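Q: Predict the bound structure with JFZ.
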Amino acid sequence: MKNLKFSRSDLWIWMILTCISLPAQLRGQTMDEMWDNRSTEQESNNVQWFKDAKFGLFIHWGLYSHLAGEWNGKRYYGSGEWIMNQAKIPVKLYEEAARSFNPVNFNAEEWAQLAKDAGIKYVVITAKHHEGFAMYDSKVSTFDIVDATPYKKDPMKALATAVGKQGIPFGFYYSQFQDWHDPNGGKNTWDFDETKKDYQKYYQEKAIPQLKELMTNYGPLGIVWFDTPGGLTKEETQRFVDGLRKLQPKSLFSSRVGHGLGDYKDYGDSEMPAQPIAGAWESIYTHNDSWGYIKHDLNFKTPDVIIHLLAEAASKGGNLMLNVGPDGTGRIPEYSVQFLRETGKWLKQNGESIYGSTQGLIPQQPWGVSTSKPGKQFLHVWNRPLNGKLLVPEMDVHVTKVYALAGGEAVKWEKSGKDIVIELPIFAPNAINTVFVVEYTGASPRYDEQAPVTISSQFAANNIYAASAQTEGNARIESLTYSHYYGDWKHTTCVVGMKDSKTDQAIFHVRVTEPGDYQVVLEYACEPGSANQEGVLQVEDKAFFFRTLRTSNFDKKYPLPFIKHTVATLTFDHAGSYQLKIKPLTGKEELFKLKAVLVKPVAR
Ligand code: JFZ
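A: Predicted complex:
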């Protein structure tokens, strides 16, 4: 450890922490406690800029980027920033890797310009990830980019300055508990004995002093993005937060500071809530499948996927923070640069429908999603109805005009009962997301969580997602988490727990806009122990029987494959409301994990 000059605030913060009495190892949080997914207890009073920002850029850049997903000639998959853990690389060897980390291609102004061009409204970069390596000039540890590498400069200082010049709020990610380099940091079980660790020593001698450096020496921070909390009780976390807040009172702390003490809520990695969520929250997504750079991970989300994710998050009242993983030379991958720029072009024309918006007034429709501003409803259309008539259901307002956001061309519309029907102009069928604006006067209609799901013959498929189910008995809606490789988390919301034919069922309330013949497809995962069980789909007085087909066991360390199983061809005799009821008939095990019901018009 370097000789530390202690200022009054250092001592003050340590005084707070030294009153902590219990041995650290008695305080370890469980994995579930660590992934604090509860909403935060209080919303900071300066969170409005964050709620309006909508689109952030996450940057995972560390010594792991230099390893690029390879170690000792072996390729690793999943989260590149976890390679030290995955390969159980001893600290000594990991320190040696730093000697060849020299990001000479890093250009802070280029990164800041890319953020600007992409329509990014805040930037968060990893100052110290779980590997324990500081990407900035730390006086607390020599395991940092200035002392341990030939680069010898502080890229965080350059980036904070360049991003600030673009007028974009800047923040640091800091892993406050996991530190695989420090003998008292969390979760290095291959070099150190977890039972002998003194987490408080780690907080007092590394985490707190480094956070103090970051919150003192890099200008105003919009965000401090904590991650994987551990080793502290709620009271200790409160003191930790109170101590740090003194340094940057306006900075927002992510919910992963732990114990619900953040200023806004972060969802799990690459997780989107199924329904609109009140308050300030953020969905974070990798651009490919890894946060940190992996040279052989080229599964980059294309601009349409990015723009749909952004619109979906905004339609539910939240933000999307999309990650890029620069390589060990300091270059952001070319596809990330290109696809971010294309997203920025879309935002240049349609940003009014995203920035400063709030959740949509109607749930997701077969054509897309909606976002709101006072007196305006923005319709994000990415599935064009075959007949060119866009149904905006149950939007009972006094419409004053309807127009295309890009270009402002007025479009024909009519009121039909409580619905609005818009004559869509011809627009490029491959348009990623065409936004139409419905301007209206009078009170905004309330969002109806129970609104029926629209089924229309004008779309090749109408998706009824599990989150819209009314569940009875043991049936419940759950977000299932799983990965493909390692730490590359995926989440799917399903109806689970249906096993008792007498009590359990999922009911989907739908509104069919055109009578006719349709096929019903159940999309589900089915464990081998649940296979070959009978279930039934009931629509009015008709019953459609099916027997479950096995997919695989559910294990969060492996992919969770879903099957699309056509169980019925049926006729809706009239337009209007129906209930689709799904329940188990025979068997004692859970019927299946139902992801969605797809209703497809019979093509003629
Ligand atoms: C953490 C890190 O371990 C990971 O490397 C990356 O930095 C990511 C953004 O954050 O991973 C997590 C943290 C929380 C959850 C899942 C993965 N969670 O709450 O489910």
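A: Residues 400 and 440 are 5 Å apart (CA to CA).
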